[in-house]
Design a protein that fits this description.
Largest interface: A-B, 29 and 29 residues
Oligomer: homodimer
Structural class of chain A: alpha/beta
Radius of gyration of chain A: 20 Å
């Protein structure tokens, strides 16, 4: 069933964004009494469409039981990449349960955004919102502004995917670690992190890990890591 | 370094495909003495370019040490999907070490290929070849013709991603299983396998597994599974 996120409830109705109304009316061509799921304050509600003066109304039928959500709070810290790759990461990471994405400024990042940042951020937010709807999530991942490495947060477990580390394989880390609630994962740009950046992260508590000698494209790495985190923390 | 696959060695030179020569000359604009890696019979060789009468020659400098390859032989059995999704799976599965891909005819497959099969197969082969070059593999995944479910092979370990199975979670399967060399993984189409198809696979030895209650797009599932297989079998 089609899913939408709402931030406002009024009487027994949910208020959606204009783009959602357009989606219901023009893209999905929904009819009177068609059902949708609306997520409000992280809870899904079964609702029905009704039209009043040609405007869409979303009437609540009942609150729904929540599906299993993601156990861990994963923050993905990634460099800016070309639009197509970055969008791909946003979409797949949402599907695989990321909680928060922090784009980070790194020395070897090739892509710049500068003045267009506000516009980009709005675009990114709309991508993760849509991906959340499509993968039946009850939460939308948070996307932070472009952040300097010195301003990165730390968490219960912090790892950085390193291109120089040879010993600390990711499977050893995950299999030896105690349970954690929150994890931060830093992924470097195409040329890798600089030695200085890796040293800095190490100093603030990030464990450098290697994913093995296999070569993965930078946009594949977050999917790989999120798959493993999901898998290792499956009930 | 740019990598190419060759099937022919002559004197101290490798013969490549016409499209590779074009890539070297026109796309990469390589110059005399530029280095490339050529993989021949699954071994990588360091080579240098030289031009003779405006034709590209690939001279062998020396055989290179082999990088770590994939430990398991993974056969991915997937339904036909829309071109973009299917290509995406071919590319990412190659990157994540798939050995063989078998497109399977399933009842709920929407996409048809019929007469165009030979052309499709050639296209798929060129996608995995290119993805193998880009991810520094020494082997190119094999792609089979469209296969009927009754003709599917079995292996040391056979799993089918089920939408009806609730108990057999994938982590339990992998964590309780003895080492295996070869694994076959069946992934269903967007509407899932039919009960009859799942029963059939079960009867020939495929274990139905669930990936949890999370909803993943069909093209994300193979990446998720291959990531886990890689991870679980990391040395």
């Amino acid at each position: 069933m089609q899913r939408y996120f709402s931030k406002e409830k009024k009487d027994n109705k949910f208020i959606l964004q204009d783009s959602d109304y357009h989606h219901i009316k023009t893209v999905m061509r929904m009819k009177e009494n068609d059902k949708v799921i609306v997520v409000y304050e992280s809870n899904p509600y079964l609702c029905k469409i009704n039209y009043k003066d040609n405007l869409v109304n979303i009437e609540i039928i009942k609150k729904q039981e929540k599906q299993e959500e993601f156990i861990n709070e994963v923050t993905l810290i990634i460099p800016l990449l070309k639009e197509q790759k970055f969008d791909f990461i946003l979409q797949k990471a949402t599907e695989l349960g990321v909680s928060r994405i922090i784009p980070v400024k790194l020395e070897r990042t090739v892509v710049k955004i500068d003045q267009k940042e506000e516009k980009k951020l709005a675009r990114w937010k709309s991508i993760v919102k849509e991906a959340s709807e499509q993968s039946n999530r009850n939460t939308i991942p948070q996307i932070e502004k472009l952040t300097r490495i010195e301003d990165l947060p730390t968490s219960d477990l912090n790892i950085v995917c390193s291109t120089t580390e040879k010993e600390n394989k990711i499977n050893k880390i995950f299999k030896n670690i105690k349970k954690y609630d929150k994890i931060n994962v830093v992924i470097g740009p195409e040329g890798g992190l600089t030695i200085k950046e890796e040293e800095y992260l190490k100093n603030i508590g990030y464990i450098p890990v290697t994913l093995g000698s296999r070569i993965m494209r930078v946009e594949t790495v977050p999917i790989y890591i999120l798959s493993i985190i999901n898998y290792e923390n499956m009930e």
